[in-house]
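Name: F-box domain-containing protein
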Amino acid sequence: MSTRGEMSPRRCRRRRTGPPSPPPASLPDADDLLREILLRLPPRPSSLPRASLVCKRWRSIVSDPQFQRRFRAHHGKPPLLGFFLDNPFSCPFVPMLDPPDRIPGARFSMPLYESNRIIDCRHGLVLFLSPWPPRRLLVWDPVAREQRRLISPPELDIGQMFIFNGAVLRPARGQGCSSGHFRVAVVARDRACTRVSVCLYSSETGIWSNIKSLQLNFLPVEQTSTLIGNSLCWLLPVRRQNVILEFDLDKHTLTVTELPAPIEPNYKKLWIVPAEDGGLGFIHLSQFHAKLWKRKPDSNGLDVWVLNKAIDFEELRPTCIGYSLALVGFAEESNAVLVQTDSGVFMVYLRSTGFKKLSNLSVFCLHYPFEYFYPAGTGIGDGHGGDEVFNNI
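Structure predicted for F-box domain-containing protein:
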């Protein structure tokens, strides 16, 4: 018999016994673990095709469209593969990457029939415009090797209106992927350059939207568009200053924003760029210095231009002999401007202000950066094309 206050051994044993431990967490499936590893390969063109050559199991994973969507989402911004040049007789592609990621220029180059000229490049698509009425628009997918010809809106091609610029983009859900849907915006003017109009085409509906127009005295220039948020923006010289023409893709509204008065109207020194917060901004070159401006609400809630940042380009001075710097392009995903000098073209990153040389081209020529996720199953810089990389397993 136990004394008062003492516990029997049986009661002690019951007290020590707790609820059963939860079963150990199951380890991830071997294929799921492999997917997570392959997901972290660098987004270079050779990464997934090389992985596909290891074995059929790896090939099955990296060629799965769902994995490729996750791969693009994981890396976010696509790599800069190279750029197209504005040439009146062809549209040469200048590759940027080193082997084995270097894409042969011949694979992404296309002769321009009917003297078509390039007017935009975005989301893996290139847009061309024929110079004479009836003006034809050509949307080209260099990776898929597909072309789509569009007839411009009749109201903007009747002899009194002239299409002089445009833009191409994929819907947000299709950026950087093989989605066949796209949108095209065209910018037109009247004979006297006193009226500007914009119209939007959707490949999903196959129709053009209602035309939006503004009365504006301006000079048409060939500088390409910039995508700011969900708006397409073009730079237009107006009298002794410049304005930004902005078309909202959601609201289908057309607005004009004047640049600060001290900015001289020289389109080779100006380019529309996004501000650090993603809003509207622009860069202005003066000799070997640049200023970044952005729109910001003032104390009364009205949007005004404010100087955001200054960039020193003195390191590029030795590359210039006869003239100062000129802007020839903008890489949206890389947030970098392309700067022309006497000795070649340099890419200058706006956030870090670092730069690197892209080419030895010394003649002023607009550049259209091609930023895209090169999908698995296509040829890379080894002479293969189409699905030959996979077929050689």
